[in-house]
Fold this sequence. Notes:
By secondary structure, the chain is mainly alpha-helical. The protein contains 18 helices and eight strands. The chain has helices at residues 26-35, 42-46, 53-64, 74-119, 124-150, 164-172, 183-199, 217-232, 260-268, 279-290, 298-309, 311-314, 320-332, 336-347, 354-361, 374-385, 418-423, 427-438, and strands at 37-40, 236-239, 248-251, 254-258, 274-277, 351-353, 397-400, 410-413.
Amino acid sequence: MARDTSAGADNRGLFDDFGAFRTPTADDFKAVLTRGLVAPDANVLLNLYRYTEQARGDLLRALGGLDNRLWVPHQALVEFWRNREGTLSDARSSGAQAAEDMAGHASQAERTLRTWANRVALSEDETDRLRGQLHDVFNDVQKAIVNVGEGEWQNITQDTSTDPVITKLEPALVGRVGAPLSPEDYVKAIAEGMRRVKERLPPGYMDRTKDGVGAAADYLVWEQILREAARRQCDVLFVTADGKEDWWRKEQGFNRGPRPELTEELRTRGGGRLFMLTPKRFLEVAASTLEFSLQEGSVEDIERVERIGTDEETHGGWTAGALQELFDRLTYEGYGDRVAVIKYAAEMEGVADATSIYEICQYDEDRSLRGFTKPVTRLTGVLRGLGKISDSAAPVLKAEYDSGPGPASGFSVHPLLVPLINTLPDEGEQRKTSQADSL
């Protein structure tokens, strides 16, 4: 049967206008790493100060192995130098703070043990034995924290001539940093970046609370990438530890790839396909493509830093403060039973069955659970409107059904929120904290 060409040359295929939804293959990543443009964000370079020596070495080896495919936007280096000393100070002080916090946890653990031992009339000998075990464990952890601080960190200083990060990063970036925009183009780019922030257009609008033109910084990085990709007429891999929704297309709180608007903008400006990876995934892909072995623990260490640095994103667009505000608003409006169900579900690995909900809420057997999530959904919308959570924040509570129509079999909490909910203080602890703060 002859192909019908009567509609002309404008016929489109499944991915012609929807390239952002195509899942990249191993061949795609190999192509962009060997023939495209690989642009690391400022946070990728700054995180070198947060990694262990092994992880730092592997990431620098991956970047160095890209040769002329590696290209750093000038604005990314502006952000790097602007934040370098602050990052150094944070990383150094975190060790001292961690050791101090650990000492506090040790004291709290010992008090908890003593209280429990008194309640069950545990013998003094057994109590002392358990207290000794606690003491040994916390001591080991504190020593490890101090050893890290006194080990490789003593070689990392503000002095760029002795800083091992700078001494390794400098040769890797020779000839691979873009030029700054001209004064005229810079003014235009700032105006466009601020317009996008105001109209919530990617990238950068999630930084709208930054002072001055700081909210336009992400757009400056993006504009410089667009220009270089158009000059080379190639695909782009953007490596970033920024997990916010103004860069990533999110589905149910998970990053699924670059925003479709960014993919289309790159194409219309003369570039190819847009790929995005976190530093962890980039290291894994680069090691396979560039054929070098990763040192033990490198990937895990980079993943640890990503998890800490993108706490909001790893919890489905929620922070502990925003979630606590939701709980407070629910309780104030008389929906404390919803809070209790959400916390119970989190304790039960994400699901509360209907029977347990009736017991928790002390409902009569003939009461329907229809509309049970409405107050949660409504107040989530309020927080979204106030900018407390992202537009793509995961739903906190969702009805579950066994099969077909009928009453809900239970309610579930989004899996990304479970660990966050379980870290929130219970009502009694929160009251004690509030009282202590008021003294």
